[in-house]
Design brief:
CATH class of the largest domain: Alpha Beta
Strand order of the largest sheet: 7-6-5-8-9
Number of domains: 2
Largest sheet: 5 strands, mixed
Oligomer: single chain
Number of strands: 9
CATH topology of the largest domain: Glutaredoxin
Shape: globular
CATH architecture of the largest domain: 3-Layer(aba) Sandwich
Low-confidence stretches: 5-25, 162-169
CATH superfamily of the largest domain: Glutaredoxin
Strand content: 15-25%
Mean pLDDT: 85
Number of helices: 6
Structural class: alpha/beta
Length: about 210
């Protein structure tokens, strides 16, 4: 019994050591890679893939395009208002990001519905009010299903299942937050349901803010 306790304690110490080591390494990051493909292989100094042109409608009935985010850093995700699973966590963490950068004009948020046949502009507005969305900071958008799904899959590489199956009929359900820089390049992907990943995202935003 004593031996088991000693082994367990030793394992705990080792895990703590490597955890602290990884955290220290993460804090030492001073530049971010580019992500040019759906496998999210980091590439340094080789920006190739830009978010393609898009045009959607936000919670206020306003047209939102790439120009809306020109010279802005933004975080994109995909959700639907009636989602009972991961979406409330995604929204909660987006609210947290909004709060952190509420006075920073260089940071924007963009949430795309994956159920546009249900999520009308009035329903998005109702959801925005319920979740204290700042209209100047955070756009909840709807539009044609084909265009929303296409940009999720080929623009943001957000649909992991599509990468595996290539089945366009599948419903998109992803927990990814995608970090896009001021020039429209993908610079990071994060699990939007995990607080620790949201904090990592914030650290990476600060790195991007230093880029010229």
């Amino acid at each position: 019994m004593k031996l088991n306790k000693v082994l367990s304690f030793g394992l705990f110490v080792l895990m703590l050591f490597f955890s602290c080591k990884d955290e220290k390494k993460e804090h030492s990051v001073t530049a971010l890679p580019y992500f040019n493909s759906a496998d999210f292989t980091p590439e340094w100094d080789t920006p190739k893939h830009k978010i393609p042109p898009f045009s959607f409608v936000n919670q206020n009935g306003e047209i939102v395009t790439n120009s809306t985010f020109e010279n802005k850093i933004y975080i994109a995700d995909f959700f639907f208002t009636s989602c009972p699973g991961i979406c409330p966590k995604l929204t909660k963490n987006m609210v947290d990001i909004q709060k952190t950068y509420i006075n920073d004009r260089d940071i924007k948020l963009l949430s795309h519905t994956v159920m546009p046949w249900r999520d009308s502009v009035p329903l998005l507005k109702k959801y925005a009010i319920k979740n204290h969305v700042n209209d100047n900071k955070w756009h909840l958008v709807t539009g044609e299903k084909e265009k929303l799904y296409d940009i999720a899959r080929t623009g943001y590489f957000a649909d992991e299942d599509f990468v595996k199956t290539q089945d366009e009929s599948n419903f998109i359900h992803t927990e990814n937050f995608i970090l896009v820089d001021k020039k429209g390049y993908i610079r990071g992907v994060y699990n939007g349901t995990l607080g620790i990943d949201v904090e990592r995202l914030k650290r990476h935003i600060e790195i991007l803010k230093q880029e010229i």
